[in-house]
Structures are given as structure tokens and as C-alpha cells.
Write the C-alpha cells for this entry.
Amino acid sequence: MTLRLFNTLSGQIEPLTPADGTALRMYACGPTVYDYGHIGNFRTFLQVDVLRRTLKLLGTPVRHVMNITDVDDKIIRNASAAGVPIGEYTAKFEQAFFEDLEALKIERPEVVPHATEHIARMVELVEKLAAEKAAYKAEDGSWYFRLTAFPEYGKLSKKDLSANVTGARVDVDEYEKDSANDFALWKAAKPGETAWDTPLGRGRPGWHLECSAMSMEFLGESFDLHAGGEDLMFPHHENEIAQSETASHKPFARHWMHVRFLLVDGKKMSKSEGNFYTLRDLLLKGFKASAIRLALISVPYRHQLNFTFDGLTDATNAIDRLRTFHQRLSAANFASGENSVLQELIKKAHTDYLEALASDLNTAEARAPIFDMVRAGNTAMDQGEMLAGDREAMLRVLEDFDAVFDVIRDDDAELTKRALARAEGAGRIDEVSAELRESAALTDEAIDALVAERTQAKKQRNFARADAIRNELAAKGVILEDSKDGVRWKRK
Ligand SMILES: [Zn+2]
């Protein structure tokens, strides 16, 4: 099965296969490490994770490069305000970024280059552009890309920018929405700014240059796929194409993937609206990392997602259904053999799941057959119709589901513990929800002791005490399940 993915450049859904016949070479714009990542950023990284996991599941190895932007206007401004060198300023946020990726189970790309470690390649690229007469040095010592040198400018975003190509210059990393200007390749250092002494003069690379230089360094001048959030399409990706193709005379990335923005409670996320959340904010409110992952990937990447707390609760419940089923299926005893009706149903669920993912990463449609299978599996177990061969087949389907969705494997308790430790380190412990704080304070041994006391109380027909213990544990986020093999407990 081959993945068919929408290509922003062609405007069509096209098969995505490695041009070199071995591994899919892909580049995704990484974070600028000047602050904690918000859930909008993570939606993009998660959808790129869905892409790379789907490719691998369908049998295509990937070579995935993601840059770390560790020098830019905001970093220089913030580091200088904090009175620390930029490397010290960015190290903290880079570490936080990788901790967040880990919490969300986003796989680490094969190559993660830092902009500041590849300055020489960026300088070379500007020199190449200068030789093509597409780059020029301005009075202040900065270098600009001459937009008129690339007549195809605008081919990705399909904007008609011809009327806007004025020769005016823009030297900041933040842009107006609709104007195309000569953009900075290399910025001359202002007094006191972090800078490198190079043949171009003393300065630092522009953000666009960084992605062109590092993608071509690790993937070649032409590669398979370039991905990023929809906000990067113009001007960032247009600028990357202009620089790269002018220098190489070859097509840059042949396939482009853009992930749509999310809304929070129906509105654009912003600090002033009070609907702005980092991943850390949500973990401290007591939401599980797995639920945040599922909520952020369940709406396909080309659709706008409206993120709500109700949506997170739904995701929590959905994961609970999957994990409970997985546990029940794994633990039960079945007679050997196969039930042909179930086998048929499992095969169909598996095919429908893979087909939906292969069809432009339709995660919403991919989920549906899995939950149908879980329902049918529970009914079959209730009615004693499940056989050992059916269990094996269902477990294999769940394994393929988790190869992309990765929510059945349960590390939530450990991830929550780490989030709390970080909150303590950051002086945010008073923001932690009361339930989460109490649950964290309760050790597994203490829970076992209370569960044993409740069993004893029930034996002595002291139901008031037994109920009181159940309620106390529930208030601290621990759920009890009575079964014929005794009592099982789990943290909510
Ligand atoms: Zn980029």
C-alpha cells in the first residue's frame, strides 16, 4: 500500500514514494527555541509524526531532518534582556522542547541540526546566490535575495505576488501577510549582537537561509518532502524555494505538506483571549499526555481542529476503552481455533484502518474501524465466542494501530510524575490541580494498603467503611474495578 498525500505545490493528492527507491528524504521546519511550545506547535509536530510513522508502517524507511533554530531576532532580544549568552538562553527551551516531544511520544527525527553549527554552509549558499546575481549586499552590510531573480516566486502559496515585487527590503523574521519583498539572507551584526565573522562580513544567517542550507546539506539539492505548519507556507517556504532553486538549478522539495492551524474553544489561540496553552499547562491541569496526543491527531491534518477540554475528556475515555480492551484480551483464556466471522471482521478492520491512513493520513477514518473492532471483540468475549486465533489477530491489529497512534501503551503515570517534578522546579506547583497533587502524593503501596483494608471491611460486612475508602481513592484519582479475580486499581 502506498501513501497518497496532498501536495501543496501541485494542489493534488499524489503518491509519496522515495525518489531514490530506498528511504523517503523529508525535512520539517523545527522550533525556534525561545519559549515553551504551545499546543498549536505540537499539533504540527504530531501530524508530522503521524506521517513518518505511517510511512514506516506501510514499509517505507524515512530519513527525517528537523532543524533547531537557535539564533533569530527574538532569541537575541530575549537573551539580551535576560543578560545571558544566546546558547545559554536557548539550551533551556531546547531541552524543554525535547521533554515535550517525549511526553507526546513524538519520534525523534534521524537528524536534528542546529542553525548555529552550520553557518559555513549558509555562507556558501549566499556566495552561490551572489554568483548568480540573485544576492546583493546592502549599505548596512546585510545581504538580500533579489526577488526578481526568481520569476516562479509564489508557486507554492499560489499567491499572485507580481504586483508586489517592488525591490523593497524586509530584514526581520516576522513578515506582513501579503507583500513580497527582497528578503534578508544574512544580517549584519548590530553592536553587541551575537555574530559570526565570515567572508560575507560580520553577522548571522536569516531564518529562511538556515532551512535551505541544512535541508540540502543532509538530504541533497532535490528531496522528497518538505513539511511545516500552514503559517510557514508564505513567505518562509516560498523563500526557501527561491533560494534553493536559484542556487541549484534543480527542483527543491517535490512534495509539500502543510498542517492546518487549530482553534481553541472556537477561537484563534492567543494570550490575550486567555485560551493559550503550552503542553505543560495542560499536564498541570491533570490531563494526560496520551489524551492530548490523541486529541491533537484525531482530526486529519488538512482540517481545522477545534481544541476543547471536552475533546480532551473524550480522548481520555477513548484511550480508556482501548486499554481496558487490550488488557482484557491479553489476560483472558481462550480455546484454540478461529472464529471465521470474527476473522473476517478483523481483516476488514485492519484493511480499513491502513486504507484510511494511506488516503492522505485520514486519522479520523482510521480510528473508526478500530473502535468498531473493540466493540465487536468485547461482545464476542461476553458471549464466549472469542478463540485464541482471534485474540492473536486482534492484538496484531492493535499493534499496528499503536504503531501510529501510540496511545495504548501506558506511560501516563510516569509522564505525569515527571511533569510534576518539572512544575516544582519551575515554581509552578501551586498551579497543579488539587486532584493531581493528591494522586501524586499517594504511593502505589498506600493504594494497595487501602484496597486491602477495603476488601477486609467488605468481608466483615462493614460496607460504610468500604464505600468510604472507594470514595477517598476516587477523589484522589484512583479507580477501583471489582472482578472475579479480585480488585484491580488504576490511576485516572
Ligand atoms: Zn523552515
The mean pLDDT is 93. Residues 309-331 form the longest helix (23 residues). Residues 79 and 86 are 5 Å apart (CA to CA). The longest strand covers residues 182-188.
